[in-house]
Amino acid sequence: MLSVKAVVGVATYTGHPLRVSRQLGTTMATEVITTISPSTNQPILTRSGLSCSDVALLPAIAAQAFNDYRLISLRERQAIVGKALQLITDRQNVLARELTEQMGRPIAYTGKEITTAVTRGEYLLKISENAMMDTQGEYEHGFKRFIRKAPIGPVLILFAWNVGCDGSMFNVLDADMV
Hints:
Elements: E1 12-14, E2 21-23, E3 32-36, E4 43-48, H1 52-69, H2 74-90, H3 92-103, H4 107-131, E5 135-136, E6 146-147, H5 165-177
Antiparallel strand pairs: 1-2, 3-4, 5-6
């Protein structure tokens, strides 16, 4: 059974196959993060930040999540990405409105931005099997040379707040497939 749960902020990670479940947010968060709309100058979103002790737990949680995730086959990873793309498509109108409110982009363009991001994600999904195949090296008698693409560790992806769905989706999907 495929089980993936990810929530940003104070969250629980549940992986597959499940070997660890760790609860963040057991200590009081040290700050509140508020998003101000650039078009109305009004608060539109408030989230609790993580405490120092919560942040200190993140590398160990990421390492355990990686150890669980690396055991998942490419087919299962493709299924996870496909499901994520479907969830994004299902929420296109909500996500477009949130982009408009949080980034100040005109609503006429944000729906298309979501569609374009999903289309590009579907392309990455389509080529992932060939992209993840071993790359054969130069022939030399007695040796079989090749490059194997395999997960090597957790990935931290940072991008600017004003990078749209396209820029962030490519990084996340690339990291998710390996």
